[in-house]
Amino acid sequence: MNLRAWTLLPLLLFPALAACAEKKDLSPPPLNPHPKEALHVTVTFDRPEDAKRYRVTMKALYQNQQRGCGYFDPLRGGGSFVYPHGTFDIPNESRDPERAHFNVYLDRYNEVACNWELAAPYFLVRDTLTGRDALGHWGLRGDLAPGTEYKAICQFQADDDPQSCYGRWPMPNVSHYSRVPITVHVSEDSALLRPRVRGVFSQSNFVKPVPTDTAPNPPASSSGD
C-alpha cells in the first residue's frame, strides 16, 4: 500500500466508525410513583456542637450495565461501552440539626427492562463557613445491610486538596483546622439489596488469571537433548 493510500485510510474509516455508534436514549426511565424499597440511613454528629457549623448531604449513583440498554462508541476513549447512569441528590428528611435522615430508594424507577439500579449512595459533610466538602468512604454493599453502623472522622484542611472522612482507612496526621466525628447507621427496617446482575463490566465477565503455583509444569527435557 502506497503513502497516499495510508493517508486516505483514516479518512475513509472515520465515517464508518461513526456510523457504527448507534446511539440510544440514555435518559432515565419514569419514576416509580409509589416506591417502597428503601435504605433508611441516618448520619449523626457525635458532638452536638458540630451541627452548628456542618451539614450532611447525600447523593446516590444509579446505573444500568445491561448490554441492550446502551451502545458501543468506537470514537470514545479508543472504544468504550456507554451505558445509562446518573447521580442524584437524596433529600434530608430530618428537622433535627444534629442528625440527617435519608431514604435511598432501590425501586426509584418504574421499569422492568433497563431499570436503573442503585449502584452506591455516598455522603458529604460540608463546612458551611468555608464551603469545603469532606467525602465519606462509605456506600459499599457491606455498609448497606440493615442494622449496619459506620463511624468516621471528617478531617478539614485549610487548602484546596480533597477533604475526606476517614473510617475505612487510617486518618493521616496532617495539618488541619477541624475534625468532625460522625456515625452512619442503616436502620433495621431497611430493604435488602437486590442480588447483583451480571453486567457488561462486572468482574464475572473477565477471565480470571491462573495462579502460577497451579499452572502445569513444562515437560522435563530428555537426557539425550
Provide a descriptive summary of the structure in words:
The model is unreliable at 6-19 and 203-225 (pLDDT under 50). Helix content is 8%, strand content 32%. The longest helix has 18 residues, at 3-20. It contains one helix and eleven strands; from the N terminus they run αβββββββββββ. With 225 residues, it is mostly beta strands.
Radius of gyration from CA coordinates: 25 Å
Low-confidence stretches: 6-19, 203-225
Q: Mind summarizing the main beta sheet?
A: 9 strands, mixed
Helical percentage: under 10%
Through-space gap between termini: 45 Å
What general form does the structure show?
A: globular
Number-wise, the strands total: 11
Element-by-element helix/strand order: HEEEEEEEEEEE
Q: Order of strands side by side in the largest beta sheet?
A: 5-2-7-8-10-9-11-1-6
Structural class: mainly beta
If helices are DSSP runs of H or I spanning 4 or more residues, what is the number of helices?
1
Q: Give the overall pLDDT as a whole number.
A: 82
Which key phrases capture this entry?
225 residues, mainly beta, nine-stranded mixed β-sheet, two-stranded antiparallel sheet, 11 strands, disordered C terminus
Please sum up the structure shown:
8% of the residues lie in helices and 32% in strands. It is mainly beta and 225 residues long. The protein has a 9-stranded mixed sheet with strand order 5-2-7-8-10-9-11-1-6, with no helix packed on it. Strands 3-4 form a two-stranded antiparallel sheet.
